[in-house]
């Protein structure tokens, strides 16, 4: 399979997505995240982990202050700001890789952009507040539009979707139109089917298996399988023990066209991605050697 190459604009930078898989390293500055809860909560530890994530080979750093694990309670605005802003501010000028803020709140996204982040990762995919698109347009920042069923608080109580791929496709079409209407250029947008967000185990597996169908939107794809519960279900392992399961999902995603993988275990996934990318490229070279008739 040939992965399509796209430019991605992140404020003053432009990245070429698709020639190799980019790694987005996760930094959860929360006391209750599902897989690394509390570990990086104090500011100093969060900053140290951010620098380590870059050193381990991440291409992007995603900082979040609100846990989105199933059943998580929403975090008040002031608290979310108190968690993420000092970390973003302390990282200015200390990281070479672009920073993304994982938030659904307008005020948090604005403050993070003013502090220098280059990307807004909206797990509500503009459903919570379309003004996140206005911010992406105003700052020229990249915008991740993710699909979620319900909110983290409610998503496990929803009945399963009768057609998860159709539901995601419909959401992408809607959100892309909303983003365009609010002045966001296509080159600023990344799409993410939102593994684990109100999806059944079978849904998550199907999304990975059919990821290539979302190529129809002509935008790069981000996938976040890292340590998620469908991997726990298949392996019987606790979140921190899901590194090999995550690796399998990362390779599958790459072979179905993922441009960015969002992971906790950056050091390990760097090797996984390198090998998978090399195999993918070998396939492409082989295809280009075929005689044409
Ligand atoms: N998953 C989580 C959070 N943010 N953003 C994108 N774009 N895609 C994802 O799949 C995604 C995301 C949930 O994982 P994690 O950050 O590890 O946990 P928590 O939300 O509990 O902090």
Can I get a quick summary?
Helices cover 40% and strands 15% of the residues.
- SS elements, strand count: 10
Sheet of most strands:
8 strands, parallel
Number of helices: 9
Provide mean pLDDT, rounded.
93
Strand proportion, as a percent range, falls in: 15-25%
Please give the structural blueprint.
Layout: E1 6-10, E2 13-17, E3 22-28, H1 43-55, E4 60-64, H2 77-91, E5 99-102, H3 106-114, E6 119-122, H4 131-139, E7 142-146, H5 164-181, E8 189-192, H6 201-209, E9 222-223, H7 229-235, H8 243-255, E10 260-263, H9 266-289
Parallel strand pairs: 3-4, 3-10, 4-5, 5-6, 6-7, 7-8, 9-10
Antiparallel strand pairs: 1-2
Residues 26, 28, 30, 33-35, 64, 67-69, 102, 121, 123, 144, 146, 192, 194-195, 222, 224, 226, 262 line the site of 6-hydroxymethylpterin-diphosphate.
